[in-house]
Design brief:
The structure holds two protein chains of two kinds. Chain A is mainly α. Chain A has five helices and two strands. In chain A, a hairpin with a 3-residue loop joins strand 1 and strand 2. The longest helix of chain A has 26 residues. Chain B folds into two domains: 205 residues, 3-Layer(aba) Sandwich (Rossmann fold); 71 residues, Alpha-Beta Plaits, CATH 3.30.70. Classes of the chains: A mainly alpha, B alpha/beta.
Chain lengths: 139, 296
């Protein structure tokens, strides 16, 4: 299943949907142009309120992750954020700052931190390769 | 901006049966499009409140408004816009499923045949079955089909899943609510009383917990889960005896300390860490656990 919810995480349910779709798009589980399940179908699968799924899809659309095509539904966008490069850099910098703060408290030093970033980038690249192979059998 | 009246507005409702106060100063507000859970123990005043919404009972004092109207003075206007499924449903036993639905439809301006067909199929209800021969669960299903097909703006459900088997309960939650809300996304309001809270965990946008006829907690589901947390700390030896005055509940079991907090997990966690526990985990409470914590 595309999304797994955890009601004990304390994270709002719609944000869990948003983050997991974003992550699926980043790791190639969802490819550009691929359709997301209709709101009602996903709501019924996850046994959640359709309002919650609708809110998640609206958020994903405003972030440029998905787009709504009349008559078709919601599909994953070509990787183009609606924000200017400057803004995108700033948004990412905020998240990196949070990770740096966390690494300080977990006593992970600079060298280790950078190595870990490199490792994680490779994990995602690997996932993308695997998912690309799956989608093109025999290629 | 939003001048539309709330779908349900109850202010200081009191309803007495003789000297016994079933509802004692209850206030609730539900905006359009929300799925509102109404949680309480047996005898907390849930059904009495619902009956006041439907003009099946008159309030002793206080005010009840549905769509901004008085359910007593504007009974027809209110009832034509809502549907109600009580916890115990009864039909004319000599009518078939088809007759029953036609009979219910005859009271309504709108009747959604597409929804009717879809739900009858999903529930595997045969149109020519006699209502008297249906099981308790099938009768509830028939009542739900009858309620949703009228395309009401408000769906009032009183313990809708009690007496249903687990599979049917799942189907109910997955299909009935989904079908109903899909009719007019963002506009359809559900007011559901239940004590089987876990089953409605994902469906509930917000909820009111009622205890002894009063609201003890009214909150959004996401907010509730971010406020109510259980912190588990494991120590190397016996946990130090400390007084967490700001915790809701502290329980010690062997080398473990279970602390339930309401809204101040950061502060409690901070102090807990000074005691150097071996491990600490933080989980949100589920709505059912919040109910148990709030309605004790």
């Amino acid at each position: 299943m595309l999304v797994q919810l955890n009601f004990k995480s304390g994270k709002p349910v719609y944000l869990q949907v948003v983050d997991q779709v974003r992550s699926a798009a980043a790791s190639g589980v969802l490819r550009p142009g691929e359709l997301l399940p209709p709101i009602r179908v996903l709501a019924e699968q996850l046994r959640i309120n359709r309002n919650t799924v609708a809110k998640a899809y609206t958020e994903l659309e405003s972030q440029g992750v998905i787009e709504t095509v009349a008559g078709k539904g919601c599909l994953v966008s070509e990787n183009n954020s609606p924000f200017k490069k400057e803004v995108r850099r700033k948004l990412l910098a905020d998240d990196i700052d949070a990770a740096i703060v966390q690494s300080h408290h977990l006593q992970v030093d600079e060298k280790d931190f950078l190595r870990l970033v490199q490792e994680r980038l490779e994990v995602f690249a690997e996932k993308n390769r695997i998912n690309a192979d799956k989608k093109q059998p025999g290629a | 901006m939003n001048t539309e009246p709330p779908v349900i507005e109850i202010n200081h409702l009191v309803r007495k049966y003789g000297k016994a106060e079933a509802v004692n100063g209850l206030s609730i507000r539900v905006e359009a499009g929300k799925c509102h859970g109404f949680f309480g123990r047996n005898g907390a005043g849930k059904t009495t409140t619902i009956k006041c919404l439907l003009n099946l009972l008159q309030p002793t004092s206080g005010q009840v408004r549905v769509f901004g109207l008085d359910p007593h003075a504007d009974e027809v206007a209110v009832k034509s816009r809502l549907a109600y499924v009580p916890d115990y449903v009864a039909f004319y036993p000599w009518m078939t499923v088809r007759d029953t639905l036609d009979y219910l439809a005859s009271f309504r301006k709108e009747w959604n045949r597409t929804t009717e067909k879809e739900l009858l199929g999903q529930f595997r209800l045969q149109p020519d079955q006699k209502a008297g021969a249906l099981s308790k669960g099938q009768k509830t299903q028939l009542a739900l089909v009858g309620a949703v097909c009228a395309d009401p703006e408000l769906l009032v459900l009183d313990e809708p899943t009690s007496g249903l088997d687990p599979i049917v309960r799942r189907e109910f939650i997955e299909t009935v609510i989904g079908t109903y809300q899909e009719g007019a996304p963002g506009r359809r309001t559900v007011f559901v009383s239940t004590h089987l809270i876990a089953e409605f965990e994902g469906l509930i946008d917000e909820f009111t917990i009622v205890e002894n006829g009063r609201a003890v907690l009214a909150i959004g589901a996401d907010e509730a889960r971010s406020r109510y947390k259980k912190i588990r700390a494991r120590f190397a030896g016996t946990p130090p005896a400390i007084d967490f005055v700001d915790a809701d509940k502290v329980r010690q079991e062997g080398r473990e300390l279970d602390i339930t907090v309401n809204g101040n997990s950061e502060a409690v966690l901070e102090r807990l860490k000074l005691l150097r526990p071996e491990s600490v985990s933080v989980d949100s409470l589920t709505l059912e656990e919040i109910f148990v914590a709030a309605a004790k």
